[in-house]
## 1
Amino acid sequence: MSEGTIALVTGANKGIGYEIAAGLGALGWSVGVGARNAERRDAAVEKLRAGGVDAFGVPLDVTDDASVTAAARLVEERAGRLDVLVNNAGVTGGMQQEPTTADLATVRTAVETNVIGVMRVTNAMLPLLRRSAAPRIVNMSSGVGSLTLQTTPGAETGPLSAAYSPSKSMLNAVTVQYAKELRDTNILINAACPGYVATDLNGFRGHRTPEQGAAIAVRLATLPDDGPTGGYFNDDGALPW
Ligand SMILES: NC(=O)c1ccc[n+]([C@@H]2O[C@H](COP(=O)([O-])OP(=O)(O)OC[C@H]3O[C@@H](n4cnc5c(N)ncnc54)[C@H](OP(=O)(O)O)[C@@H]3O)[C@@H](O)[C@H]2O)c1
């Protein structure tokens, strides 16, 4: 068993996920850089290591059973357990997405990645998380997954989104179900919104930096034992569902 804290961040080769890995690494943690592309993964690991982070690469496509199983095996062989899982990998499928003309393959890919991918990775990592003294799971959601905000006149919830926003609403709903099932364990699981962040995801139109977007995930990854579970937060506090 490794003595230091072990974290895994999915989709950590760039954007917010990279900065989450950097932020957790700055705490002295060992951080698995989950990424599906070998070149991008190696480059991220190298850059994190150059910055003093104890980073290691974890080949991981969240939509692929065999890849996720192998990732869990790799973490087990390296550390014997997992303390923190950040389910950050996500896709939009492009914007904007009118429901009446939506490409259903795009909807399917968004759900497969943003929801089922999170469940696949979480369930594969749970045996390792259960060995931790203070397991934390952070699901990177989005404010656009808030049905309350989507139906509040004047609230800024972006363009029409038949695939992406509903996938994040479902991710929120799934997060609540996990929290209910795991209520009597020491596992805390929460959903996070990073704000509107300049990354590849939105053609770098966001007004926040990836580092700013990573802050809420780092906070939820480092919750004390009496911290919340089954919640939905951004930097300012709880978000409406
Ligand atoms: N940017 C924003 O304003 C914003 C706002 C709210 C929520 N979010 C959420 O924040 C998270 C990170 O987004 P970002 O803005 O940092 O976007 P990004 O720069 O596009 O990064 C997305 C990451 O997810 C990875 N990924 C996608 N599909 C994957 C799969 N099947 N398996 C493994 N990795 C996969 C990507 O890997 P590749 O490099 O291989 O594609 C990339 O590393 C997402 O969940 C997103 O929905 C972002």
## 2
Amino acid sequence: MLIQPIDYFLVVWFALAAASTIYVAWDQYKNNPEPVVMKWGFILVTLYMGPLGLLLYVLADKEPRPGEHEAFIRPLWKQGVGSTIHCVAGDATGIILAAAITALLGLPMWVDLIVEYATGFAFGLFIFQSLFMQSMMGGTYWQNVRHTFLPEFISMNCMMAGMAPVMSFLMMGRDMRAMEPSELLFWGVMSLGVIAGFATAYPVNVWMVARNLKHGLMTERKPGGRFDVQPKSSADVKETRDAHGGHEQHAQHRGGQATGGSHDMQSDATHAQLAAVAGVSVLTLALGMVAPANWVNLTLSARDVGGAIMPPGMIMDRDTPAAAMLDMAAVDPRDVVATYGLDVRGDRELMPRDESGIKVFDLETAVIRWTILPGVTVDAYAFNGQVPGPRLRFHQGERVRINVTNHLPESTTVHWHGLILPNVMDGPAHITQEPIEHGDVYHYEFTAVQSGTYFYHSHDHVDRQQSLGLYGALIIDPSAPDPSLAADHEYTVLLQEWLLREGLTYPAMPMDGGQPNYFTLTGRAYPATDTIRLRVGETLKVRFIGSNNGFIHPMHIHGGPFQVVAIDGETLQPSARYMADTVNVGPGQRYDVIWTARQPGKWLIHCHIGHHTTNNNLEMQGGGGLMMVIEVASA
Ligand SMILES: [Cu+2]
């Protein structure tokens, strides 16, 4: 639940909101001489607006000292607060209920907004205005519906004009957990929306109270009741009553009428004024509802993208489809099943078992937390809890079976890159096989007819899954080894880019918002990469594997040239082998090179793009990212 700093803020916010609401409820019933409908109005609004609701209550409504309520609530700005509270309590309750239900139903955002408006209006008009106020207004229920329709319409329009853009922009913003009612952020957006709606509805409510179109705050002292005290100044009360019809209630009660009598709300607003205000309220409503559609995709629903967190700077247009957003979204830290420190390395050789002459390997995918540097972890998609996945090594001519079980939150497949095998074992999702769904297993089986350096990787949502770590080395030893390809030592370099921001891991991609800021060489960033130890005169075979999928890395070795002996698993004829000191390792490519230790000292293997040898743009101990040291001792 708590995966972002905003979540901690929201916990505090809702704790304060709960405390504020409890205080307002207690004080309303214990100390405040006010009609029940207003008590509930303040209680609900404090629940939605938290400490701001409490602030409004204390400054505008809470009786400062016994007998002073009548005079205290008299100023027009306080009457406007009362009128707005009343509107917001009803409308916001309807809107919030509708928002939660439409999100659960998976309706598109633009439908949500219309349903929310209709529900908020209905709640405000039929329940909060017409039903709860009936005793104060007198008349029949339907007379009240008719009388309050226009003021309620104007107030609701202005409130939704403030609330709708807040909901649209924040729900369809970077952190789309805001679309899920099961997330605290959803309720945080609702609170902020109500605060914005209160602000936009307040001015028009002040005007309507001044024109006697709406009730403001009221005082109610039932004879013999708890609040039946003499007001501080009867002159004040009379004056207030004259200005604001609501106070008549008090006088009537004190005058001995047991039930609230009716009073006529005689407004001095002209038809022209009403038409102008109503017209402007409709325009602001239209602006608030429609304008966000210029920037965010309101055709999406909580079911499409709810819960996804997007990387900073990703371009999300009004026509960005849901699938594209999900592809780019952060790994949900709550999917992580295991955490591994620097003591666990990837690319560990997986030992097969023998089943009737077939070498059987078991691969399982899952979301893990993987350490790439001291104190720096990524949330990765991994085979067998390793990044890179375990090294599969077998001999040319052997038959192998690889059981792939998928525990990822999405489907996957595995492709055996560069191998000659039956089409149905090749791996592309939807093309040669149905994807392996969460919890399912697929049995890949083939005979190794080639030899050399290969690798395996996901072939379903490749852009996302391979970028998050779903790959591993696949090395096939030749049935007849060539002595000219032998070396004293061997090291396999598997390349990858990462995008790690604000504690969340996104798949790195060569696009806006997807550019990587960490780079790993066989699962670690320098200075946490391995060190290879040789003696002068010894040889080292480096197998470079372009296991990454968005960037080309010119891999360079210091201390003199190496001999390129194989490309993409194919051994070069002796006459075709060549000397070089840098090979451009593109996605999917492999280079086997043999380097000789000529001089003692520390010699680097690194990518020659400077940015790729930094960690989050920082050099540490002379570099970072795609860099490792060959430490050569004297012979
Ligand atoms: Cu590079």
